[in-house]
């Protein structure tokens, strides 16, 4: 990888892609399934815990790349409801890693300088109490920002998100607070995660690393309803490069503009 980064042709291609992206149709919401941390670690003879840590570093770099090309919403699939089936040691490590990243985000000069609002989406109440508290502190520290949104999907499942919204609206109808005829796409969107008055917008591009070609119950309302572009690539998440990201953005632009 270090050779590729020093290669002048690589640098030129990256700059070319960026210039085309900035001149093209804006891609405002990118959602990423960060797959392959454990497989990357196994391939390199590393511990799975180090694989997760290296993956978290990639997540931070991706936020920089989004700022670089004008992406306003970045949603990262960090921990699904299915991940609760993992062993307790790995879950505790992941929860501590995520908590420390939220602490870093809260203190980050980059976050505050660029006015990035950080939010967790999912059934946050299922997470350990110490992690929940840190999420709340980070969200509160950035709640007034609106230049960019970083949405971290935690204890998230797309079907569960739709069920929770449907149950809430059913209770509202039953209580006479709204009429069944009032329920439309906009009202449903307002009651998806997070319920803070600013819904996660429709997705323009889903990226999945690690070689699998599936979207794994991720943002079904926001993505499928928008017929967003999907970009599946082979690199595991810790080795995902800026040029992979730019190719994905360019693919979405080309699909959107019909070029």
What descriptive keywords fit this protein?
6 strands, about 260 residues, single chain, six-stranded parallel sheet, alpha/beta, globular
Structure description:
This protein has a 6-stranded parallel beta sheet with strand order 3-4-2-1-5-6, sandwiched between helices. By secondary structure, the chain is of the alpha/beta class. The chain starts with a helix and ends with a helix. The longest helix is centred in the N-terminal third of the chain and has 22 residues, at 48-69. The chain has one domain (27-156, 202-257): 3-Layer(aba) Sandwich (Undecaprenyl pyrophosphate synthetase). The protein is built from 11 helices and 6 strands. Helix content is 52%, strand content 14%.
Explain the layout of strands and helices.
Blueprint: H1 2-6, H2 8-23, E1 29-33, H3 37-44, H4 48-69, E2 73-80, H5 88-107, H6 109-113, E3 116-121, H7 129-142, E4 148-156, H8 158-174, H9 185-190, E5 205-208, H10 220-224, E6 229-232, H11 242-257
Helix pairs in contact: 2-11, 3-4, 4-5, 5-7
A few lines on this structure:
The protein has 259 residues and is of the alpha/beta class. The protein has eleven helices and six strands.
Tally of domains: 1
**Most strands sheet:** 6 strands, parallel
What portion of residues belong to β-strands? 5-15%
CATH class: Alpha Beta
Low-confidence stretches: 1-5
Question: Helix share of residues?
Answer: 40-55%
Major beta sheet, strand line-up: 3-4-2-1-5-6
Q: What's the assembly state of these chains?
A: single chain
Structural class designation = alpha/beta
Task: Choose one word for the global shape.
Answer: globular
Q: Give the integer mean of the pLDDT values.
A: 93
Total of DSSP H or I helical runs spanning 4+ residues? 11
Radius of gyration: 19 Å
Q: Based on the coordinates given, report the CATH architecture.
A: 3-Layer(aba) Sandwich
Which fold name corresponds to the CATH topology? Answer: Undecaprenyl pyrophosphate synthetase
């Amino acid at each position: 990888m270090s050779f590729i980064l020093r290669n002048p042709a690589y640098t030129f291609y990256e700059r070319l892609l960026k210039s085309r992206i900035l001149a093209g149709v804006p891609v405002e919401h990118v959602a990423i399934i960060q797959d392959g941390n454990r497989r990357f670690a196994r391939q390199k003879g590393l511990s799975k815990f180090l694989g997760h840590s290296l993956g978290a570093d990639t997540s931070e770099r991706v936020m920089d790349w989004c700022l670089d090309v004008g992406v306003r919403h970045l949603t990262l699939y960090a921990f699904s409801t299915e991940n609760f089936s993992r062993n307790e040691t790995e879950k505790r490590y992941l929860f501590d890693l995520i908590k420390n990243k939220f602490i870093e985000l809260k203190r980050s000069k980059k976050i505050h300088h660029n006015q990035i609002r950080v939010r967790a989406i999912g059934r946050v109440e299922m997470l350990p109490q110490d992690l929940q508290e840190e999420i709340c502190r980070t969200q509160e520290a950035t709640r007034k920002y609106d230049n960019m949104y970083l949405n971290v999907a935690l204890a998230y499942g797309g079907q569960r998100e739709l069920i929770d919204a449907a149950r809430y609206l059913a209770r509202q109808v039953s209580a006479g607070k709204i009429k069944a005829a009032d329920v439309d796409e906009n009202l449903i969107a307002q009651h998806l995660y997070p319920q803070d008055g600013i819904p996660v917008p429709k997705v323009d591009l889903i990226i999945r690393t690690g070689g699998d070609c599936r979207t794994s119950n991720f943002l079904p309302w926001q993505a499928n309803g928008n017929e967003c572009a999907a970009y599946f690539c082979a690199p595991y998440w810790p080795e995902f490069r800026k040029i992979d990201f730019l190719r994905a953005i360019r693919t979405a632009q080309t699909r959107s503009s019909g070029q």
